[in-house]
Design goal:
This protein has 152 residues and is mainly alpha-helical. The protein has seven helices and three strands. Helix 2 packs parallel to helix 7.
């Protein structure tokens, strides 16, 4: 399996992951025949304004890393985000986030010495974690509201 950090270091692959995350969170089926949480290759090509060979090449890398899974239906391919491999990144980054909470003056040097790829990956990861947290919170509140209405 490829190194997960190398896989997400590429900005095109991060764009694909973000697009698939949006589809995952929208929980709606698309007009392209993709089920809820899935996106077709043509949908990703259109959304990211990239060529089909470029999108397919990067989706293969993401698939080999276990970050996406594919469903084949005839000649069509539908991709879905798999978040479990991102736990390696989470395990690696959490100590840095915890250190930031301690307010040490040395914390700024961590980011000053970080490469642009690490900064970009961390920013994307933070955005994705924020979206997932907001979505979970919304679902929890909706479910709680629904249960309280049933009890009345």
């Amino acid at each position: 399996m490829p190194d997960i950090f190398s896989v997400i270091a590429d900005p095109t692959r991060r764009q694909l992951l973000s697009a698939l995350l949006d589809r995952h969170l929208s929980d709606e089926a698309s007009s392209s025949g993709a089920a809820a949480g899935e996106a077709s290759v043509s949908e990703l090509v259109h959304r990211l304004e990239l060529s089909q060979p470029t999108v397919s090449k990067h989706l293969k890398v993401l698939r080999d890393a276990g970050l996406v899974e594919v469903r084949e239906e005839g000649q069509h391919r539908f991709y879905r985000l798999q978040t479990s491999p991102l736990e390696d990144i989470e395990d690696w980054i959490v100590p840095f986030l915890a250190a930031a909470d301690e307010g040490s003056a040395d914390d700024d040097s961590l980011w000053e010495n970080a490469s642009e790829a690490v900064r970009s990956a961390a920013a994307t990861f933070g955005q994705n974690v924020g979206r997932a947290a907001a979505e979970s919170s919304h679902r929890w509140r909706s479910m709680t509201d629904w249960r309280s209405r049933l009890r009345k």
